[in-house]
Amino acid sequence: MPPHGKPSVKREIIGGQRELMNCSSELDSRELEVVQGRCKHIVDIIRVFVIL
């Protein structure tokens, strides 16, 4: 099996998280909850993709 998490994929995930954090600072708390929920869903999908 390949080593867990390819560097390029990890870099993209970290970059995406940074972008979300920058955007979230401009949102109110209700919108932030929606964004965080979406982010968690996307991260779960990426996690499954990386494991496969």
Structure explained in plain terms:
The chain has 52 residues and is an all-alpha fold. Helices cover 79% and strands 0% of the residues. The protein contains 2 helices and no strands. Helix 1 (7-24) packs antiparallel against helix 2 (29-51). The radius of gyration is 13 Å and the shape is flat.
CA-based gyration radius = 13 Å
Given helix and strand content, the structural type is mainly alpha
Mean pLDDT: 68
Number of helices: 2
Largest sheet: none
How many β-strands, per DSSP? 0
| H/E series | HH
Strand content: under 5%
Low-confidence stretches: none
Helix content: over 70%
Shape: flat
First and last CA, distance? 10 Å
SSE arrangement:
Blueprint: H1 7-24, H2 29-51
Helix pairs in contact: 1-2
